Each structure stands twice: as structure tokens, then as C-alpha cells.
Known about the structure:
By secondary structure, the chain is mainly alpha-helical. It has two domains: about 1-180 and about 295-320, 3-Layer(aba) Sandwich (Rossmann fold), CATH 3.40.50; about 200-285, Orthogonal Bundle (Tyrosyl-Transfer RNA Synthetase). The chain has helices at about 15-30, 40-45, 50-65, 85-95, 100, 105-115, 120-135, 150-165, 210-220, 235-250, 250-260, 265-290, 295-320; strands spanning about 1-5, 35-40, 75-80, 140, 175. Helix 1 (about 15-30) links the parallel strand 1 and strand 2 (about 35-40). The protein binds adenosine-5'-tetraphosphate. Adenosine-5'-tetraphosphate binds next to helix 1.
Amino acid sequence: MRIFSGIQPTGRKHLGNYIGAIRQYVEGQDRGEAIYCIVDLHATTVAYDPAELRRYLYDTAAMLLAAGLDPGRCILFRQSDVPEHTELCWLLTSVTAHGDLNRMHQFKEKSAKQRELVSAGLFLYPVLQAADVLAYNADEVPVGDDQRQHIELMRDIAERFNERYGETFVVPRHRIPEVGARIMDLQEPTRKMSTTAPSEAGTILVLDEPRAIEKKVKSAVTDSGSEVERRPDKPGISNLIEILAAVRGVAPEAVEAEFEGSGYGAFKQAVAEEVVEYLRPVRERYEQIRPDEAELERALREGAEKAHAISHEIVADARRKMGVGAPR
Ligand code: AQP
């Protein structure tokens, strides 16, 4: 089985990225042929600083290695090093409905936040994402719940291509974790935890110092009750239950049963302590890995060579089926 996923080099990764995606990437190395891509081209679809983008790319590569990705057991590379991604994106636009792209929640949310320019790249973001995955004929795409709609679109694009031009692409399925698929903001628990949140207090960063994590968890918004249980009128407590369950690798029911009657204070203390210990080894390994940019660059280039060897054949096949380029 082939697994593929992409992650943006948006600098500081948060607990949602870690639980929803990164730890699934690590597990993927034991389940199949795992291919992971740092999607720098996707990062250019909103306002950004070119020098920062390069720095963030190394930050993200170091974070993934610190989390447990092993270039000996997976392929880790930078999207822009493999030109097949952009080529296939264009080829796929021929079977992508404009109306479908218009319906994408992420496009609506992100375009509303742009102050100067809503780029065509932001509109085509899901097509480039489809190209990332289809270029490898991946079976499975580990993602958080916010990417559900994009994966559905990717499946439609693959099916439409196969119908129109003949069987070419594997139609991939998403792998969304049962627990922790949508970690919510600690200050606004009806909104997902996000890199671009208005306040840092609601976002636990993977590289946060223990004291910062403790402070953020303890000041997380909760309701005026005291029952530690998941209910629609308790989004803050429900989120903390989900976080602790994900960190422990247990069902949320087990957390509810353990903290029944203990009150919010003791519960928040436990969440803070366990999140600190959960992220500590990643932060410590990151500090060792991040300074050696030459080594990060070497690993990414080696990954790109392996990725290119796979995607080159698949994209050449798509080109042939579409009747573009010189006949063989
Ligand atoms: N809150 C979340 N809970 C669970 N999973 C999440 N993911 C993102 N947020 C949560 C998953 O993380 C993976 C990488 O996402 P990305 O490449 O889009 O990275 P990002 O831009 O840093 O993520 P954000 O925070 O989602 O960005 P903005 O602020 O732009 O909205 C994906 O698999 C995603 O599902």
C-alpha cells in the first residue's frame, strides 16, 4: 500500500497538525510505502515572505524528522523539487469543475482573510493537492478532518480523468484519525486550532516550552459547570477530553470515566502535564536536528530523487493518455 500526504511549511506547527497528521505520518512508515511532501508551492497561494518560506521549510523538515520520520523508511521531499506536481496540476484542471472549486470551504475562508489579493493559486489549491497525491498513485492520504472535502474532490478528479481518458489513476481514500481529527482552539473552541489564529493563547505549538503549554491549557475557555464530559454545550471541555484521549491513545469515554467528579482544575492539570510530556521528546530532538541545514537539504534532495523516479512515469502516462506532447 502506498501512503502520501503533504504538509505546509507554515513555520510553527501546532498540536492539531501533530495529532491530526504528523503522528499518522510516523505510523504510516510501518504500514506501507510512505511518501511525504513539504508543500512550499501551496504556501505561495497566500501572502508570504520568500526568505521566511525557506526558513520555515527547514523548520518543518526538522519537525517531521524530530517526530520520527526516518528517510531510510519513507520518502520525504520538497514539492517544488519535483516538477511533475505542477505539470499534473495543469493537466488535472481539464477535468476539474470550476463550480466544485468555488464550493471549497477552505477557499471561502482563506480568500475572505486576504487583504490585498485573492490569488488564482488559492482557487487552484485543491487541484495542486490532487496532483500531489495522484502523481504517486497513492492509496491512502492521512489528514485531519478539515481536509475531508479536498480529498473528496481529489477522488472526483481521479474518477473523471479515468472515465474520460482511460484508467490511469488510483482513486485514493482519506485516513482521518478516530480521535483528534479536529483539535479545536483553546480560546475559541468552536473553531479549529490553526496556524493563522488571531490569538496565540488558543494554539499549543509543538515547540512551546512546558510553562507556555501549562499556561495555555489552564486558561483554556470552559463553561461554568464542573462535569468532565463531552456535550454540545461544553465545546471547551469536550476539546480537552479529545486532546487527552489522543495523547494517551485511548477512547474519550475512558478519560470521561477517569475524571468523573474530579472538577475542571484537576482535569486541566492532568491535560497540561501529559501534553508537556507528549511533546517534550519532539522539542528536544528538534533542537538537535534543526541547526544542520546542509544535512536537511541533503535529505530533502535525496527524497526528491526517489519521488521523481515514481511520479515521472505516472505523469508521463497521464500526458500520453491526454494526447499532449510528442507521441512515443
Ligand atoms: N486543528 C486541527 N486538528 C487536526 N488536524 C489538523 N490539521 C490542521 N489543523 C488541524 C491537519 O494538519 C495537516 C497539515 O495542515 P497544513 O499543511 O494545512 O498546515 P497548516 O497550514 O499549518 O495548518 P492549519 O493550521 O490548518 O493552517 P491554517 O491556519 O492556514 O488553516 C493537515 O492534514 C490538516 O488536516
